[in-house]
């Protein structure tokens, strides 16, 4: 009888945890960190980068780290959009240089433009609700600095 009550108790708790409603992001086309333990959303840090042109084209961010730090084992990301265009949304690994974070998106050569794919992080979008998508990373992110870039908007976060 004890075992039956324990099984019912744990099954009910597991069912309740699974059926927890997904929080709806307030803004569209903006990535959020989804803290599934507290079922809350945190907007990624919006930053205005300097656009760099020259032998490489990319973005530079002030400071050596993002304001938002996410534990590696709690990295779940959501985005709300009714017209999400994957071609414009990119996740980039940032590199440190002279106390600034930067990413090279394109390098220019003699008449050649090379996309810097080594700085891009591969991900897919999984439907999670009405116009809400979970950003599913192809691999786990190592600790470091990252930015979602959507046209000229940039949203940064740190993985610790």
Task: Give a description of the structure.
This protein has 160 residues and is mainly beta. It has one helix spanning 2-18, and strands at residues 31-35, 40-43, 45-47, 50-52, 56-62, 69-70, 77-80, 89-97, 100-108, 113-115, 120-121, 123-129, 132-137, 144-150, 153-159. The longest helix is centred in the N-terminal third of the chain and has 17 residues, at 2-18. The strands form 2 sheets. Strands 3, 4, 5, 6, 8, 9, 10, 11, 14 and 15 form a 10-stranded mixed beta sheet that branches. A 5-stranded antiparallel beta sheet has the order 2-1-7-13-12, with no helix packed on it. Strand 4 and strand 5 (56-62) form a beta hairpin. The protein has one domain (23-159). It has 1 helix and 15 strands. The termini are far apart.
Short account of what is shown:
11% of the residues lie in helices and 49% in strands. It is mainly β and 160 residues long.
